[in-house]
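Report of the visiting student (M.T.), summer placement. My assignment was to run the structure pipeline on a short list of targets and document each run. The first record concerns Nuclear transport factor 2 family protein.
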Amino acid sequence: MKDRTHALLFRNLQEVFGEGDAVRRRAAIKELYTEDCVIYTPKEAVLGHDALDKFSGELRATHPHFVYTPHSKPQALHNAGRIAWGSGPRGDAPEYTGWDVIIVRNGQIAALYVFLDAESS
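After the run finished, the structure tokens were exported:
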């Protein structure tokens, strides 16, 4: 379970939120997420594959040249996992950072909690 949780964390960053190709992103969502998944962001809750596909595609369109880079080793605990990450142009300091926390059910992400770090002043 630990290895699968780690893989889900990494693949979600790259293949869902970091993927610019809509077809590949949709295939990853189908593989990585349960059909009844829920994604909790600071602004809203997103329910199901269609809503996640729309949300992640729209987010990607706002910064198509950004990459998601892990900033910590993934951690797994029972059916949950977490990873710190940053996002920004490749090779530059991240423009924003956060944590992903997932709940895994039957080898797929059933829930994703996205915590954004406060911007420094």
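The two ends are 40 Å apart (CA to CA). The first helix runs from residue 2 to 17. I thank the supervising group for their guidance throughout the placement.
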